[in-house]
Amino acid sequence: MITIIGNTVSPYVRKILVVLTIKGIPFEIDPIVPFFGDDEFAKISPLRRIPVLIDGDMIINDSSVIAQYLEETYPFPSILPATAAARAKARWFEEYADSRMGDVFVWKGFGKMVLAPAFFGATRDLEAHKTLLATEVVEVMDYLESVTSEEGFLCGPFGLADISVAVMFKMMMYARWTPDAARWPKVCALLARAEAHPAMRLTAEWADALSRTPPPEQRAKLAEIGLRPTATSYFGGAPRRGPMSQIG
Hints:
alpha+beta; Glutaredoxin; Glutathione S-transferase Yfyf (Class Pi), Chain A, domain 2; four-stranded mixed beta sheet
């Protein structure tokens, strides 16, 4: 059985859980976040990032690499569109979501407003957050609005592009921000269509459930929400600081 190392709250982990769910691939999960990972975690994830996929003797890092591995190993149903041009476009949206949206939504938004205060006692800089919302968040939203159609999805049928973009927005929701439908109507409509997909709805429930559960209790929570925990865990017990790219 495939093993996923990583917490359901992470958009990068959630992306992979959506793909696994769409493809009907059974998996077990160790729901750690990187800064709770022990020394053994660093051996399987040298950059201390999640998710990590373990498939037999194969250990794969990085959500984009994992998604491609799953697509090539379990090609049906596909998460990529049919033509080479559309597939390239889908991979671009995945990269934009992973890098630019990850920087703005995950680290500068969720990270500084939720993660750092909760686990490291950092003070929330509300003025810096207001500036982020008025500048970089607007820049991201304006770009997405410019490339989103009135109907349908980003590259044809619902797939990797839509998953990669949509999962990022929950991070900002946890940081108490949601996009203005009057200002960005096409993006908000796209998000509604994407989050209505059964795999997106299910993984959103998993994310919300663990977001409300203290890390030491999260493995026990898995059974309640229908997930299979791994027999052992890389949970280290005490948070440690790491590189800002730990959830990539």
